[in-house]
Amino acid sequence: MKKSIFYSRYMLIGLFVVSVMTTSAQGRMNRAVESSLFLDTAMLELTLKMDVEKVTKDIEDREEHPGIIVLKGQNGEDIEINVMLQTRGKTRANPEVCKFPPLQINFKKKDNYDNVFAGQDKLKLVAHCQYNRGFDDYVVQEYLTYKHFNILTDNSFRVRLLRINYVDTEGEMDPFTKYAFLIEEDDILAHRQGKVVSPGTVRNQDLCQRDALDLMTVFEFMIGNTDWGISAKHNVKLISNDSTTSSPIPVPYDFDYAGAIMTTYAQPAESLQITSVRQRLFRGLCRQPGVYEETFQIYNDKKEEIYALYQNASNVDDKFKKSTLKYYDDFYEIINDPKKARKQILEVCRASHVHVY
Predict the structure, then answer these.
(1) 3-state secondary structure string, 13-66?
(2) In CA terms, which of 79, 88, 173, 269 is 20 to 30 Å from 346?
(3) Cα–Cα distance between 136 and 265 in angstroms, integer?
(4) What are the CA-CA distances from residue 191 to residues 42, 107, 155, 176 (Å)?
(5) Which of these, 156, 283, 307, lies nearest to 225 by C-alpha position?
(6) What is the pLDDT of residues 143-199, one digit of tens each?
(7) Half-sphere exposure of 354 (CA within 13 A, CB side)
């Protein structure tokens, strides 16, 4: 009897602890969703203090290193936030490609309740890669590509453009200022959309939600990006209504290999048999006649808003705007010309059979 009571109490305590932890996690995610970090579209200026060499050269072990974010409060006062920093990424973590790799910023949650980083846990920072001006431009161009997909669907990563003043705490480098941007956490994106991050993989594209998949594959075609894969979850995150049974929604990220940006290091995979990332290649599934036309209509409906995003961007030069919009003009010419659409999309789909949905 006593043993039974003991186990009952133990189970109740365990359930209480789990309930408190769940409530705490929900509260954090709600704060992160509602935070001005990704709701505000203005560029955020801040200072990041760290041992630049120790952080950026730790590619193999990827240990966490201390850093301090300094930003202005509402009354103009300096706010200091202690963070931990570590390198991340694959191609851009290669020292032969990037001298300054992407970072992950790990926040101490108790330190950021009353500022722009409220509720944030671990944020991805896309940095400048190399120190010359052209790579600084690539950062803003990739940021705009994320905003471009935001226009098409809420099932997309929110981003925030930054202007960072880097201060080397060891004094080995003079302070320098570069563009960067932050990417919304996976679980916050899922929570915002009333979904969860899918923990597993899918064998192939046809297990994904059709409308969302088609929207994504046409988007990747539009921007000229072939550097993605569903089954390997390569540059794609999956979110769904639950973690087991529902068809997942693919959410793309990492667009530095897109033809619309055309970074100097971007090269298409040899297996794709294209010579430049600027050369579009459709990698979506085959559909019944008329299905992709529904997706094309979404792009036509959003064209004016998409073009305005680039035309009104103040952090890129007119040459990039003109080149990008000309590249997108070619895309719209393809999807609105039945012969070109058939040749470049409908007849080059990634299946020999036609899906019946």
Answers:
(1) HHHHHHHHHHHHHHHHHHHHHHCHHHHCCCCEEEEEEECHHHHHCCCCCCCCEE
(2) 269
(3) 14
(4) 24, 19, 11, 36
(5) 283
(6) 999 999 999 999 999 999 999 999 999 999 999 999 999 999 999 999 999 999 998
(7) 9
